[in-house]
Each structure stands twice: as C-alpha cells, then as structure tokens.
Design a protein that fits this description.
With about 90 residues, the protein is mostly helical. It contains four helices and no strands. Helix 1 runs antiparallel to helix 2. The longest helix has about 35 residues.
Length: about 90
C-alpha cells in the first residue's frame, strides 16, 4: 500500500519536473533574446529576425505543452486543400 502511494507521488513529481523542463525550453530562449534586445546587445540586423523567431518558438512550445496533439493539428492545417493550392501557385510563379 505504501509503495502504491509513493509511486503515485513519484509520478506527480516526475510530471512536474517535465513541466518545468518544458517551460524552461519554451521560455529561456525568449527571455534571453528579449533581455539582450532590451539592453541593446543584439545587432539591429539580428534583432529584426531573432526576436520574432524567439516569440514564435516560445508560443509554439507553450501550445504544444498545453495540447499534446498540437503537432497533429498543425499537420492537418497544412493539409487543407485551400492552403495546398496557395503553396502550389507560389511555387509555380517566378
């Protein structure tokens, strides 16, 4: 009986550890890039591209943490008929 209770607690701690790790992966690059940008340490050529990419990275990671099927939904969105016609038209145009 004690082993079952400990196993349940161990699972809870393990899940919280995974959540903390996921938050760190999502937010640390965003915080680091935003701090460097606020301090003026990023060259302007890089800050134009790196800051929005860091925000996209953070948002995508948080969404995938909240919804484990987020990747499947993105794939389904990509496979919509209207979007595939747009990409084929853009690939065909010079």
């Amino acid at each position: 009986m004690l082993k079952n209770a400990y196993a349940k607690l161990g699972f809870v701690f393990d899940r919280q550890g995974n959540m903390i790790q996921s938050l760190a992966i999502a937010l640390l690059p965003l915080v680091a890039i935003s701090a460097l940008d606020a301090l003026g340490r990023l060259p302007s050529q890089f800050s134009t591209y790196i800051v929005p990419i860091a925000w996209i990275w953070g948002i995508a990671n948080l969404l995938s943490m909240l919804d484990p099927r987020f990747a499947e939904k993105l794939t389904a969105l990509k496979d919509l008929p209207g979007l595939s016609m747009l990409t084929s038209k853009s690939a065909a145009s010079p």
